């Protein structure tokens, strides 16, 4: 019989603390201009912050499940924020980071394994699924706050660009993961309210939901409509397109080894 999570089950993992420390040091290097290679510092800062947000996304699912009745999440290591403890470390961490590197988009990862049979009440099931995307929303608010509060005076341009790029990752992750597509959290929110017959019919295709989203975004017409909406939302939050573009340009520091990076994004 599974008991409540022990203190050890909830202790923050050294792996997560290490990632957070690298993120903090890289952020300091971007802010102060300490690093000669600003792009590499931006890469470490944004990637580290993105992984931290992914860990907190999964932690939000697990913590909400714990308080909803699934006491097994502690023994699985989900409350330690250790990305290596997730059921799908490849889907939860590696693939989302690769998507950022390849296309500058925050695609959601795989979720932690929740023993749904231990949880009673449709609202609880919906809240568990919603907890992850709400974490990305919280990150997006933090990243965009300096822009919509007009509080950028004294903030170095490189740090502004890094925040702008990180903001688009969080916004796209929140929106994509909230889509009511099987396998994504958006579907998890509505699933408890569907009939048993529909849930059984959808269950076999759930593992392919993330692949379907990725495939749809490769369709030019869909890609244009989606990113036009994202850009409009970010403009409304005060994040200009050139800031997001320069953030991505700096992030891809390796381009400077082969091609000249956009001089309009120079921060030195």
Automatic annotation (TrEMBL):
Keyword match Nuclease: no
UniProt GO BP: proteolysis
Bilayer disposition of the protein: Multi-pass membrane protein
Needed cofactors: Zn(2+)
Compartment annotation: Cell membrane
Entry keyword annotation includes Metal-binding: yes
Keywords assigned: Cell membrane, Hydrolase, Membrane, Metal-binding, Metalloprotease, Protease, Transmembrane, Transmembrane helix, Zinc
Species for this entry: Streptomyces rubiginosohelvolus
InterPro entries found in the cross-reference section: Metallopeptidase_M50B (IPR052348), Rip2-like (IPR044537)
Name by which UniProt lists this protein: Site-2 protease family protein
First-listed, main subcellular location of the protein, grouped into a coarse class: membrane
Membrane-traversing stretches: 12-31, 37-56, 89-114, 126-149, 161-184, 204-227
MF terms (GO), sorted A to Z: peptidase activity
Family: Belongs to the peptidase M50B family.
Domain of life, per lineage: Bacteria
């Amino acid at each position: 019989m599974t008991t409540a999570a022990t203190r050890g089950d909830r202790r923050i993992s050294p792996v997560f603390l290490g990632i957070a420390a690298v993120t903090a040091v890289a952020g300091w290097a971007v802010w102060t201009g300490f690093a000669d290679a600003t792009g590499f510092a931006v890469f470490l800062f944004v990637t580290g912050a993105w992984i931290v947000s992914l860990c907190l996304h999964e932690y939000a699912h697990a913590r909400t499940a714990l308080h909803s009745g699934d006491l097994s999440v502690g023994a699985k290591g989900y409350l330690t924020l250790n990305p290596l403890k997730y059921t799908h470390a490849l889907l939860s961490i590696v693939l989302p980071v690769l998507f950022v590197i390849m296309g500058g988009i925050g695609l959601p990862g795989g979720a932690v394994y929740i023993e749904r049979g231990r949880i009673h009440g449709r609202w609880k099931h919906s809240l568990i699924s919603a907890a992850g995307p709400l974490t990305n929303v919280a990150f997006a608010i933090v990243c965009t706050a300096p822009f919509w509060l007009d509080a950028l005076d004294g903030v170095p341009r490189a740090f502004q660009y890094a925040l702008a790029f990180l903001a688009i990752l969080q916004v796209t992750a929140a929106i994509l993961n909230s889509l009511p597509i099987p396998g994504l959290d958006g579907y998890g929110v509505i699933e408890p309210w569907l009939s048993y017959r529909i849930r059984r019919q959808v269950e076999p295709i759930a593992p392919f939901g993330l692949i379907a989203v990725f495939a749809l975004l490769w369709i030019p017409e869909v890609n244009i409509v989606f990113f036009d909406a994202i850009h409009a939302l970010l403009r409304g939050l005060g994040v200009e397109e050139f800031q997001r573009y320069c953030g991505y340009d700096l992030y891809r520091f390796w381009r400077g080894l082969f091609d000249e990076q956009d001089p309009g994004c120079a921060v030195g």
